[in-house]
Amino acid sequence: MTEIRHMPVATTRMQPLAAGAGIDAHRHDDHQIVYAARGVLAITTDRGSWVAPATRAIWVPAGTVHAHQAHGELELHLVGLPATDNPLGLAEPTVLAVGPLLRELILAYTRPPHDDSGERRRLRAVLLDQLRASPQQPLHLPTPTDPRLRELCALLHADPADNRTLAALGACVGASERTLTRLFKADLGMTFPQWRTQLRLHRALVLLAGDTPVTTVAHACGWSSTSAFIDVFRRAFGHTPGTRRKQLVEN
Questions:
Q1: In CATH, which superfamily holds the domain spanning 144-250?
Q2: Class level of CATH domain 5-140
Q3: Which of 13, 22, 134, 189 is deepest in the core (most CB within 10 A)?
Q4: Which has the closest alpha carbon to 251: 72, 101, 98, 99?
């Protein structure tokens, strides 16, 4: 059994991670804001995974056992907050939108010196105000507990471009379409099409971080056309995948 590291304090710092590198499962007594100014960050818990590009940050509540994974060269910024200071009132990891001001506040707050000066306290107060105003993003890919759903989801993880219907996939795992439809809502809190779209968006972010061309990403993730992929991506992230890929290359 893998040992879970206990880090009492969620330190505030900037930490580079090479492409493909990770931080093993651990937990903090404090809350943590995790932000990748460059690259794409994935956080995994026993409840699922969250993937965030540079326009998103991930809120990780105190006590949450989680692991980090870098996709592309990652510039990781970590902001620790006392467990008594939960500006969002959230008990589970959550993806938050990061606008230009919040981005600069996170970057500034994670630079040394990490002292208790009045300037730093004021910076922290504005950062927390911006966090409270940040829209939450539905970018969670939950992990199923039902064995039939686990098997079905594993098939799609292996090949997100698999376009088989739920009925066809059900025949492979020994469950009817009706049963699987019910399980998706009860176990994962979303419909099958919603879950598959989340999976494809997560995989698309990972591929874009590896400098994969947009058309290749669209086909690898199962969209019928590049334009359909661009439309879904823009609605999810507020910009086109081409813009995201250009930012990754330039940064």
A1: Homeodomain-like (1.10.10.60)
A2: mainly beta
A3: 134
A4: 72
